[in-house]
Write a structure and sequence with these properties.
Elements: E1 6-11, E2 19-20, E3 24-29, E4 36-37, E5 44-45, H1 46-56, E6 61-66, H2 90-100, H3 110-114, E7 123-124, E8 128-129, H4 147-154, H5 172-185, E9 191-192, E10 203-206, H6 209-215, H7 228-237, H8 251-266, H9 280-285
Parallel strand pairs: 1-6, 6-10, 9-10
Antiparallel strand pairs: 1-3, 2-5, 3-4, 7-8
Helix pairs in contact: 1-5, 2-5, 6-8, 7-8
Length: 293
């Protein structure tokens, strides 16, 4: 039995601009019922999501953010190996990203990835692969992985490096903009496992919506659901009623709805909070994806 009373899943976006079709929020109640979209009548902006988490979050909510809450550290012993000002832990990384990107509107992070000190670590558009993108000769072209991303891959997912900013499936931009959000939330809303899991109150965790889809009986290649029928089938596999609707559905909305129901189903499982490879050092630096075992 989970101690949480509400489960909020956020499909996030790192795209440029103010409002984004790629942002969707869905809420599931611990008492049951279908998950529902948190609808503001227009597309969400990132600052509006920040305000909702800071001021409008229901009590005792487990918040799942679909982004990477940190960058790889364990593979090279630093976020930015060879850089004197490389942060020592995840919260220091968030502060750095927010400070360097302070003039970027809408919690953007373009200034950070274009900064001459940090650009060499990223793969950017136009074939611009930084000299440090692979951390001194990584064995594959996907770039550096956190330990949790290796765990995701072992479970059948297809993760991408958070240093990769190219391609439809990349999550690097979303992760960096999300770090600005997490920094501005401050310590009032703990972020597991960077912060210990408190006995009461709301908590943020990183999620990967493909993990929810896998547990709902879908493959990584079929993780996206673009019809109410497909969403209803996946929710049923998790023991959740489906929201009303027929025909097509936006896959960002379906990702959030399924992930909210999945959080409700699995949050009470103690093993989800004790992944085998998670160490105290990883918790402080790289963090972890909730549900990656």
């Amino acid at each position: 039995m989970s101690r949480f009373r509400h489960f909020l899943a956020i499909d996030w976006s790192g795209a440029a601009g103010e409002r984004h079709a790629g942002i969707a929020l869905a809420l599931a109640d611990a008492q049951g019922g279908a998950p529902v979209l948190v609808d503001r009548g227009r597309r969400w902006s990132r600052p509006e999501v920040l305000a909702f988490l800071a001021e409008g979050l229901p009590a005792d909510t487990l918040v799942g953010l679909d982004l990477g809450i940190s960058l790889p550290f364990a593979d090279c012993g630093a976020f930015f190996p060879g850089l004197a000002e490389s942060p020592a832990d995840a919260r220091a990384l968030w502060a750095l990203v927010d400070r360097v990107s302070a003039r970027d509107p809408h919690l953007g992070a373009g200034s950070f990835v274009d900064h001459p000190a940090f650009a060499p670590y990223f793969r950017r558009h136009g074939g611009r692969e930084g000299a440090r993108f692979r951390c001194d000769g990584a064995a594959h072209g996907k770039g550096r992985f956190r330990v949790t991303e290796s765990a995701q891959a072992a479970m059948g997912c297809k993760p991408y490096s958070n240093f990769n900013l190219v391609g439809a499936a990349q999550v690097g931009k979303a992760s960096l903009t999300g770090m600005r959000l997490l920094h501005r939330l401050g310590p009032a809303l703990p972020v597991w496992p960077i912060d210990p899991l408190p006995p009461t109150g709301s908590v943020v965790v990183e999620i990967y919506t493909s993990l929810a889809a896998l547990e709902a009986g879908r493959s990584a290649a079929r993780a996206k659901m673009r019809s109410h029928a497909a969403l209803g089938e996946a929710l049923g596999a998790l023991g959740s009623p489906a929201p009303r609707g027929t025909g097509a559905i936006d896959d960002h909305a379906s990702d959030a709805l399924l992930a909210a129901a999945w959080l409700r189903k699995v949050a009470g499982d103690p093993e989800r909070w004790r992944p085998r490879a998670l160490t105290p050092a990883l918790a402080r630096t790289e963090g972890w994806t909730f549900g990656a075992l």
